[in-house]
Amino acid sequence: MPLVSFLDKTDKDAQLMLAYSRGDASAFEMLYGKHKDALYRFFLRQCGSQAVAEELYQEVWLRVIRARETYTHKARFSTWLYHIAHNILVDFFRKPVEQDDTELVEEKIPANASNDPALILTAQEKIQRFRVHLESLPREQMETFLLKEEAGLSLEEIASTTGENVETVKSRLRYAVKKLRQSLNSDEDRVQ
């Protein structure tokens, strides 16, 4: 069985993208619905600005739309999508920062959270501490962590997305997790 046929059958998203390339607009809607939240969070967690995250997020989808006629299935769709996102993020970090890009987003407590103000405050503080520690990681480690945790990509897919080898990706992920654990444990020790 040819590799492309095998990939097409196992990658429902690639099948949707191929259907979209043939003119099926509902296929794009399904792809968008499936990937929109994780992709947006990927940008938001890396740039820290809601306005910038929205701009970068929209750019990815514009590139997906533009690529629909030339799309070929060579890797999982999510790998291809996050490769585009990675390139956009690299371009963003290369350009000078504008003053308007300083707005930070506040995490919202889920609607089903307890109404106990102390619990809500504790949850908000934990989220904020985690965000601070995540943002303090070197950019490459933070990106690798987010591609794994937010996008759900495998190590091989992260390597393909970022253009690094798998061992480099493993090391970055291992260091990111270790630093986050140490920082969070240190926070817990200070609180107690």
Question: What's the tally of helices?
Answer: 9
Q: Write down the overall geometry.
A: globular
- Overall number of domains: 2
Oligomer: single chain
The appropriate CATH architecture of the largest domain is Orthogonal Bundle
What is the ordering of alpha helices and beta strands? Answer: HHHHHHHHH
Q: Please state the average pLDDT score.
A: 78
Give the end-to-end Cα distance, rounded to a whole number of Å. 59 Å
Low-confidence stretches: 1-7, 97-116
Major sheet: none
* Cα-based radius of gyration, to the nearest Å: 19 Å
Topology:
Layout: H1 3-10, H2 12-21, H3 25-47, H4 50-66, H5 77-94, H6 117-136, H7 139-149, H8 155-162, H9 166-191
Helix pairs in contact: 2-3, 3-4, 4-5, 5-8, 6-9, 7-9, 8-9
Provide an overview of this structure.
With 192 residues, the protein is mainly α. The chain folds into two domains: 105 residues, Rna Polymerase Sigma Factor, Chain: A, CATH 1.10.1740; 86 residues, Winged helix-like DNA-binding domain superfamily/Winged helix DNA-binding domain (Arc Repressor Mutant, subunit A, Orthogonal Bundle), CATH 1.10.10.10. Helices cover 73% and strands 0% of the residues. The chain contains nine helices and no strands. Helix 3 packs antiparallel against helix 4 and helix 4 crosses helix 5. The longest helix is centred in the last third of the chain and has 26 residues. The chain is globular. The N terminus is likely disordered.
